[in-house]
From TrEMBL:
Keywords: Aspartyl protease, Disulfide bond, Hydrolase, Protease, Signal. GO terms for biological process: proteolysis. Residues 133-465 form the Peptidase A1 domain. It comes from the Eukaryota. This is Peptidase A1 domain-containing protein. Transmembrane segments: none annotated. Residues 1-28 form the signal peptide.
């Protein structure tokens, strides 16, 4: 009797302990409460400075068949040698502004009219509107390597083509010459696919035309080609734009891969092969490499946490997400309802800095400044208004910033998504405010760095897993 009583007691104790433990796990991120208990990032200041050399470390993914190396186009890992000079931060923030205006116009149901007026109000001639990360793919037979930007906000994949009837810019790779490829074919103007490319014909040949937010444009033949991702991963009859007349600044990249959700995008064209699933990791700095992977191939999916993907509006080609909250050092910001504005939120590969509603940005900045109160401040630059000079420090303790997405997904940002280096003595809080609380929230690539970001487009969900690049 005594034995069974004590075993009941023990079991009760165990249940109680388990309950306490589960409560702690379930409420992780919300009830850390006690400031300082959460892992803020203490790092040597020297580690915040970028290395002049490229270091590659993606051996973890050598089992993936359809994987491309992702590099920052302005860094030492980039094959675009003439783009190595980094943009200055003013230029990056200007580019973000024009990108976000473009997104806003695209998300609207009257995109064409808006597009023109948005473009007309741009502050300055911006740099390219479509991102800073590039991958190298092969096109044609024999295969020619082309280094392309990748963009989750674009649908048509294009590259510059000879003979460049209009104008071409100087790209790093030789310009693709369709007449020297045995697998190239024009798409006929009467093809049903031609309607998707959307702008008419050159004689009997389908014409495509894209206009970006800063009035840069790409016009040419809509065609099919063999696309080579790796020796074993080849896509026949891939529909792409063979550009004959470009305007705008795309650096020295050869063009762009469109990873949006529209039916002529890479994702839709390869749906049978890759199940509308892709993932990428953007590296923590321009001195290391990440990846872009198609399909679920070779991934230990257990560490990926998924939040629902939504469409902001019927015609939007962007990936919509729901951001529920932000915590600084484990303390949730006191902001009304969700972070997502009435216009919703999207995740974008081509915007650098996350654009928050002004009231949310302001609450984040207040909490961040409080945690950084003991550091020397540095001058503001452009829209970065919370900057620090660490040149007298040997280490720096950066508060943790956690984003909570719908579906119970909490992610603790990498340090590279919290502080943005402007100069060696000027590190700034890496967020920006939209002009109004009603503007669409854009979750940018700085805050995605080092995560494996998985787009399960067929399953309508978006996943995050930490340590995606290493
Ligand atoms: C970068 O590479 C050069 C040449 O290999 C080497 O001399 C230098 O020490 C490296 N710098 C760093 C910071 O690793
Ligand atoms: C950064 O770029 C802006 C805009 O192009 C320019 O006005 C400014 O002088 C540049 N700053 C530096 C430090 O190069
Ligand atoms: C466009 O959007 C507005 C507001 O979101 C809505 O009231 C209107 O009905 C929409 N128009 C069309 C044609 O979808
Ligand atoms: C973009 O094109 C429109 C219409 O052609 C023009 O009114 C506007 O000034 C242009 N904007 C820029 C930034 O070039
Ligand atoms: C190329 O596009 C520009 C506008 O971006 C236009 O003025 C020019 O006529 C075009 N050239 C050809 C050959 O179509
Ligand atoms: C493009 O490259 C050619 C040859 O390398 C050079 O002559 C030309 O000036 C370059 N154009 C620009 C705009 O850089
Ligand atoms: C594709 O169409 C263009 C315009 O009609 C033509 O000049 C070109 O020769 C065609 N290419 C092929 C391979 O049919
Ligand atoms: C493209 O998408 C539209 C609208 O979603 C659909 O009506 C059409 O059938 C699709 N076309 C193809 C070729 O998949
Ligand atoms: C700032 O320094 C003071 C004095 O050393 C210390 O008491 C305080 O906790 C520090 N504040 C933060 C946010 O680290």
């Amino acid at each position: 009797m005594e034995g069974s009583l004590s075993s009941v007691f023990n079991r009760a104790l165990l249940v109680l302990l388990l309950h306490v433990l589960m409560t702690c796990i379930v409420h992780q991120g919300y009830t850390y409460g006690v400031e300082g208990k959460i892992a803020s990032h203490t790092v040597p200041v020297s580690s915040l400075l970028p290395s002049p050399n490229c270091s590659t470390s993606t051996t973890k993914y050598s089992n993936r068949k359809s994987i491309l190396k992702v590099v920052h186009r302005h860094g030492p890992c980039s094959p675009l040698v003439r783009d190595h000079n980094p943009l200055n931060v003013t230029e990056i923030l200007l580019r973000d502004q024009s990108r976000v205006k473009w997104i806003r116009s695209q998300s609207s149901n009257s995109s064409y009219g808006l597009k023109a007026s948005v473009a007309a109000s741009l502050p300055a001639k911006p740099d390219i509107t479509d991102g800073e990360y590039v991958v190298t793919i092969g096109l044609g037979t024999p295969k020619k390597d082309l280094t392309l930007l990748f963009d989750t906000g674009s649908s048509i994949t294009w590259t510059q083509c000879k003979p460049c009837m209009g104008s071409c810019y100087n790209q790093s790779d030789p310009i693709f010459n369709p007449s020297q490829s045995s697998s190239y074919a024009n798409i006929s103007c009467s093809s049903t696919f031609c309607a998707l490319a959307g702008s008419g014909c050159f004689g009997s040949t389908c014409k495509y035309s894209i206009t970006y937010g800063d009035n840069s444009s790409s016009v040419g033949f809509f065609a099919t080609e063999k696309l080579t991702i790796s020796p074993t991963e080849v896509i026949d009859n891939f529909k792409f734009g063979c550009d004959e007349n470009i305007s705008g600044n795309f650096g020295t990249a050869a063009g762009l891969i469109g990873l949006s959700d529209k039916n002529i995008s890479f994702v839709e064209q390869t749906a049978a092969k890759y199940g509308k699933y892709f993932s990428y990791c953007m590296p923590s700095s321009a001195s290391s490499t990440g990846h872009l992977t198609f399909g679920k191939d070779g991934r230990a999916l257990s560490s990926v946490r998924f939040t629902p993907l939504s469409k902001i509006q019927q015609h939007s080609e962007f990936y919509g997400i729901t951001i529920l909250g932000i915590s600084v050092n484990g303390v949730p910001l006191s902001i009304p309802s969700t972070v997502s504005s009435s216009a919703g939120a999207i995740i974008d590969s081509g915007t650098t800095i996350t654009q928050l509603p002004p009231t949310v940005y302001s609450a984040l900045r207040t909490a961040f400044r409080k945690a950084m109160v003991n550091y020397t401040t540095a001058p503001a630059v452009s829209t970065f208004d919370t900057c620090y000079d660490f040149s007298k420090e040997s280490t720096v303790t950066v508060p943790s910033i956690k984003f909570s997405f719908a579906g119970g997904v909490d992610i603790d940002l990498d340090r590279s998504g919290i502080l943005y280096m402007v100069t060696a003595s000027q590190f700034c809080l890496a967020f920006a405010a939209n002009s109004a609380d009603s503007d669409v929230v854009v979750y940018g690539n700085a805050q995605q760095r080092t995560f494996e970001v998985a787009y399960d487009v067929a399953g309508r969900k978006l996943g995050f897993a930490p340590n995606g690049c290493s």
